[in-house]
Design a protein that fits this description.
By secondary structure, the protein is mostly helical. It contains 5 helices and no strands. The chain is about 75% helix and about 0% strand. α3 runs antiparallel to α4.
Length: about 160
């Protein structure tokens, strides 16, 4: 019994040795490759050091600053839209309207809420022109809410 356990352990050890340790011939091949790689690196380093050094000039990107200023305007327009949306929601609280008028009010409120719920961040815009068009959309939604407030104040809702 002891002999069989000894043979099994010896077989396991030799199997592990052959699986995880590389041959001596492979070691000599890798050492010759590493000396070739070192020689290549020395040649590349010498070539790089012989080349004249060039100055790298980074130009000031005015487009980025323009986009940031336009985005700040967009943020203030979104804040005004959020306030107008809250004010309109407060005015409409508890009121009931005829079906057609309620659908129009719902469409205007959903359009305005779309700009508040999923605002596009600065990185989502390609240039300042896109940000300006977004500002126009937000201002249009805000003006629609103001018109809706006037419409609600003029119309007599049915309670």
């Amino acid at each position: 019994m002891k002999i069989i356990v000894g043979i099994i352990i010896a077989i396991l050890l030799t199997t592990i040795f052959f699986l995880f340790w590389s041959d001596i011939s492979e070691l000599t091949e890798t050492s010759s490759l590493s000396t070739q790689e070192q020689a290549t690196e020395e040649v590349i380093t010498a070539t790089i050091s012989e080349q004249p050094k060039k100055k790298i000039v980074i130009e000031y990107d005015s487009n980025g600053e323009e986009m940031k200023s336009e985005y700040n305007k967009l943020e203030s327009a979104r804040l005004e839209l959020k306030r107008a949306l809250a004010k309109t929601k407060h005015l409409l609280w508890g009121m009931t309207f005829p079906s057609e008028q309620a659908k129009k009010i719902n469409a205007v409120m959903l359009n305005a809420h779309k700009f508040e719920k999923t605002p596009r961040m600065l990185g989502a815009f390609f240039d300042a022109k896109e940000i300006r068009s977004e500002i126009e959309k937000v201002n249009f939604a805000k003006n629609a809410l103001i018109d809706l407030e006037k419409l609600v104040s003029e119309a007599e809702p049915t309670n």
